[in-house]
Here is the input.
Amino acid sequence: MYNRASSYIDSFHANINSFVPVLICFILITPIYLGVGYGISGINILYIYSIFQILIIALTQRFVFDTPETLPKLFVFIITLQNIFIGLAIHLSPGMPINSIRLLISFTSVYVLVACIAILFFDAAARRSFFNVSQMLPFEKIAILFIICAGAYFFKGKAPLFAKFGYLRNFTLFFFIYILGKLSVKGKGSLKDFFRFLFIFSFVICVFGFIERFILPESFWLDTLNVLKVTEAKGRGIEEGLLPSVFMTDFFGVWTRRLASTFAEPVNAAYFFAFTTIAALVARNIFMMVVAGATLFLTLGKGGMLVASVTLVVMIAAYTLFRKRMDIKRAVILLPLFVTFINFYVGKFRGSAAAHMQGLSSLPINLFNYPLGRGLGTGGNWGSIFEVSIIEKRITMTGAESMVGTIGHQMGIIGMLLYILFFIFMVRYLLKSYRLFLNRGDKYLAKNNLFAAAIMLGIFMVSLFQENTFGPQAGGIYFLFIGMVVGTNKLAEND
Here is the structure.
């Protein structure tokens, strides 16, 4: 009895220790959002202040407290709560210019870049390890080539600067998020601590999601959190007095409101809850798997559901291939879920899903007509927002609604090849690591490498049909986790 009580106390202390540094950092960052709301006129000065503040936080966590693993947790805080804080800032200052709102929306990108710079260029050990080309993994080298290619295509073609910068962010930030994850781990304990944090925090925002979906009135989003202004700043159309169109969907012929939780956007929320659902399954946290899975379903997000479904099937297949036997228990539970999702997706195909398929189907046409690509911002969703001529063409013919279609249209054959090779070599490395640690008897690292390989295949599959896959609020949690797994692998290999 005493041992059990002691175990609960230790677990409680571990949970507290997992959250306190993150909460302190988030409290320090909060004035960046709310300061705009109070009408600080010097938005550029405030932004410069935010950069220095993040730099101080990153360096303090790395060198003073020696807890670099706090930085990924803070990233999770930012991507999940950012739109809530932006809405509150607008509430404090109703006349806030739309460009100020856009600067706040881009804050996630600034955080990732500054935190990475702090670790890369101020930690000599990390710098030697990462920038030694001979020690870099093949998929890391390919990712750097992809980023260089995206930078070159930024200067090709005529397109609005906002659209060009939007795609430059999406085509580069995923790798910096990966670096943040990779260089923030100190060992296997960092990964376990991250999951402990993730499950507790996810439970809180799941509960909030149920409350906002079933209890809070629409005025909470419209009046208190000003979701229409945030949506407009992202370039999407709005109708006064009505929730943004992304909050609603055709669910088997019934116009249904979707759960948005703290993301204030159901699509990105679906990606996050898909990750949490499968992570909980891998960790055998059945309670969290059920809660997150139910929340995922209520988002009605096809992208998140497809990631979860592909991940589950790949993991079952891997168990069969590498262990020479079928994992019956998992198959009985998981395969019906996959079949259910496919039926759900096909049932919706007549509606919004058709646009996603059209975006993908434009790929061979665009690669044939523009083999070298047309340049960043010349197509896709971002391009259509700021360029009337693209809208008049039928935007799906420029790859819109498909990440793969968008890359093909804007970066041509070169960009497409680098994109595909990146996933091939990454999944290959993760499956090789899975076999390595399985043979060593390290089941924890083995299953996390398998999980990482499976979700990367899921992300690739979804990128065929959705364009926002690489956005920080959608795919950020996935690339952060991949980086943490690779970083843990490297440390374990050197032991």
In short: The longest helix spans residues 403-440. The chain has a mean pLDDT of 77.
